[in-house]
Amino acid sequence: MSFWTALVVIVAIWGFVQIVTARQARRRHRHGEPGTDLAAPQPDPGTQRELEELRERVKVLEQITVDGREAKAIADEIERLRDR
Fold first, then answer.
1. What's the CA gap between 66 and 74, in Å, rounded?
2. pTM of the prediction?
3. How many CB atoms lie within 10 A of CB 51?
């Protein structure tokens, strides 16, 4: 068997394996077997809790920044910080 014949046979086998694997994955997904969900995984509860805490902190920081000040004063301060 020549090198090129062996290469064609190897590629054909690889293609056949890819087709069979894809069909099996599709069949498993269609029947709803566990571990075949194609959707993004849900974050764990610890990560969700930390994300909510960070959102609350941002809200508090926004209130502190804007509380009792006019929008013009805030805009001027932002521009001063940009110019640095």
1. 7
2. 0.36
3. 11
